[in-house]
Amino acid sequence: MSINRVVVSGNLTRDPELRQAGATTVLQFGIAVNERRKNSQTEQWEDHPNFFDVLVWGARGEGLSRVLTKGMKVAIEGKLRWNQWKAQDGTNRSKVEIVADNVDFMSAPRDGAAKAPQGDYAAPDAAAPRVEELVEDIPF
Questions:
Q1: Cross-strand partners of 78
Q2: How far apart are CA 31 and CA 48, in angstroms?
Q3: What phi, psi does 28 have (nearest 5°)?
Q4: What was the pLDDT predicted at 63?
Q5: How far apart are CA 85 and CA 41, in angstroms?
Q6: Could you write out the three-class secondary structure of 66-113?
Q7: Pick from 4, 5, 134: nearest CA to 72
Q8: Which residue among 1, 61, 85, 116 sits deepest, i.e. has the most Cβ atoms within 10 Å of its Cβ?
Q9: Is there a contact between 116 and 19 (Cβ–Cβ < 8 Å)?
Q10: Residue 118, Cβ neighbours under 10 Å: how many?
Q11: What is the Cα–Cα distance from 59 to 27, expressed in whole angstroms?
C-alpha cells in the first residue's frame, strides 16, 4: 500500500490562472515553501525556498480564483503528481505538482482581490461564493 498526501504552507508566487481543461476548469498557481537550514559557515539559520505548482480542479478552483492573489499565505493539503512531457526542443522535462484537495487562507486577500460587499446597499452576488464558504477550517 502507498500513501500520497502532502501538507505545505507558503506564499503564492504569482496570481492564479484559471483555464479550461476539457469539460472542467483548473486553477493553477505557484507556491514558495521555505525550508530552514543552518549555514555551516555563518552558523546562522537561513530560509531556502522550494517552489511548487499547485492545481485546483473544478468549482473549488473557480471560487478560489476570485480570492487568491500573489503574496497570500495559504496552507494546502493534497497529493503529489509527477508530470512528464517532451519540450519543443526535444528534451524530456518533468516536474512534481501538488493537486490540492483543500486550500486554507492564512492571510487576508490583498487589495484588488474579490471582497464581500460593504454596507447594506449591495446584495451579494449569487454566482460568487463568499470567503466564509471557501474557508472550511482555519488552522489557528
A1: 6, 100
A2: 13
A3: -125, 135
A4: 92
A5: 39
A6: CCCCCCCEEEEEEEEEEEEEECCCCCEEEEEEEEEEEEEECCCCCCCC
A7: 134
A8: 61
A9: no
A10: 7
A11: 10
> pTM for the full model?
0.72
Contact indicator for 124, 117 with CB cutoff of 8 Å: yes
Specify the pLDDT at position 108. Answer: 79
Separation in Å, CA 40 to CA 35, 48, 55: 15, 14, 36
Helix (H, G, I), strand (E, B) or coil at 37: strand
- Containing 80, the helix (H) or strand (E) segment is strand 73-86
∠ CA 131-51-37 to the nearest 5 degrees? 110
What does the pLDDT read at residue 120? 31
Average pLDDT for runs of 10 along the chain of length 140 = 94 95 92 92 92 95 93 96 92 94 86 43 40 50
